């Protein structure tokens, strides 16, 4: 499956049966391909990389590439699987760091002076729950100053800390003094801002950043075009498939704000994508045809914990032609009246016909299945949505799966009131909708119950 229109970027998308569509970004490091021609020999096995790309991440590897321009690089005292893990983390495959890989990546990043990878590990550790002294030791061992400062700021005078373990004795004298002073009431150190802060290093030409990239507004930054090509199909086409490969200036189809966000997101230490900056990064990823950035942004937009309204997520996906992901986005809407409220947004008319049709599809599902909000099962504690409701009369113990049973009961007890559904009449059985004569649907834990004048009770 491919998404995009006739005049828009076309990005490959694979739909998995169990979830939403996802964008494929795969790299086979075991074979040379395109610019990845420099072999790394690890434990007798070869991995092929682009020397321009790894030079952006590691000054150590860059120096080796310059010293040995025509030979394979032999990486001693490291494991093959560990190097593969490192490559998948720093390349557009964008592999996430977890509680196991962080201990693999930290020594590699430290030895090869990969500040960008150290930063990614540091961000993971900041948000990961591990013992306090373990976190302090890691910050001290690998010079993660931002993590160390945050640990010191968490401390309070007279805090109880286990000072008998091996981690304490492995701390440097400098950190021991900081802990001592903090325990005795010294003020907390100032918090260190999270990098990257700006693009100052890309405002002048260097041996590594030798090509100019110009935004539509005229702003120029200097980059390594081979590195950018690894993240952008637009640059890949210009560099490897056009005859004008010797050009030292490239024009970018982005505004200055989008280009700045794009460069900060792909270059180490890679700007962390959040609700505040996802807009320009996603638009830049679309204009530059960057599957890796589109996948990363789409993953964030489809996370329930992301602090963005469903309408904002829908608008961003629609503007970037990620239409196959819109149904998964709209599945977060559980009440018909909320979907109707989305049609009253001031930017609703900016949505494409396909996005609005998807909204109607979601509305039809919500109206067809009353009381189907996700809930937690009393027995297994699983959080899921029922596929149907069985109604039971408490008097005669008669069971029925007829959805019209509740409608008929409510109609006999009074006139239905469809609150918050402007202009939609005759909708019955909506979760939480109040019926005349005391009829209502309520969801309590894993059980869906109805109360009305006839005393009909429905069980899940």
TrEMBL record:
Q: Where is the signal peptide?
A: none
- What SMART domains does this protein map onto? BTB (SM00225)
Gene3D superfamilies cross-referenced by the UniProt entry: Potassium Channel Kv1.1, Chain A
Domain BTB as annotated: residue spans: 36-129, 209-305
InterPro entries, alphabetized: BTB/POZ_dom, SKP1/BTB/POZ_sf
Q: Name the domain of life.
A: Eukaryota
- Name this polypeptide is given: BTB domain-containing protein
What is the source species? Mesorhabditis belari
| Taxonomic lineage from the root | Eukaryota, Metazoa, Ecdysozoa, Nematoda, Chromadorea
